[in-house]
Amino acid sequence: MSANVKLVLVQEAYDDILHRTLSKLSCELARLIYLASTRDYNTGTYQHDGLSARFRPDVARKALEIAHRQVFYQVSAFSLEELVKEIEVYFHSSREEPWTVLRTWEKLEPFRIAVPVDVNPVVARLFLSNIRLALAIYRFHQPKDPSDPSAALPPL
Question: Is pTM beyond 0.90 here?
């Protein structure tokens, strides 16, 4: 298969994942987390059964890899204000209470898996730092955590 044909197929697969799946997600952060979830954590290879059924598996993998990297760089370029808004949208689109998601993200930092392989390490570190900072800002602007025992205490 010629390189041009493969590039056309990868572009078609990319457009497919963009229009069928990514466009239905609530925000760029949700797209980033979704794309990261299509990557095998042991091997770093991407897998998407629906995309692989419509295109060859190697084409699907490459399209997912490209999409993941592009969305990552897009989210990495957000201002802190934009990132806080993305976190708010993402948390509220979850099936869980936003406080539960916030506590989990602060403790486990699942957003670390959102960093693609072979991206600029400085951008990766900046992304992780900005997410942590945006979480702190988000927390600061929220009413008290209802599960926090001190939330029920009257102010001194």
Answer: no
Amino acid occupying residue 87 = I
Look up residue 36 and give its amino acid: A
CA 91 – CA 85 distance, rounded (Å): 10
Q: Where are the domains of the chain?
A: 3-140
Residue of 143, 130, 1 lying closest to 58 (CA atoms): 1
Q: How far is CA 74 from CA 57, 84, 101, 154, in A?
A: 26, 15, 23, 43
What percent of the chain stands above pLDDT 90?
83
Alpha helices in 21-56 (DSSP H): 28-37, 49-54
User: Quick one: which of 117, 6, 10 has its CA closest to 60?
Assistant: 10
How many angstroms separate the CA atoms of 12 and 39, rounded?
20
Residue 92 has pLDDT above 90, yes or no: yes
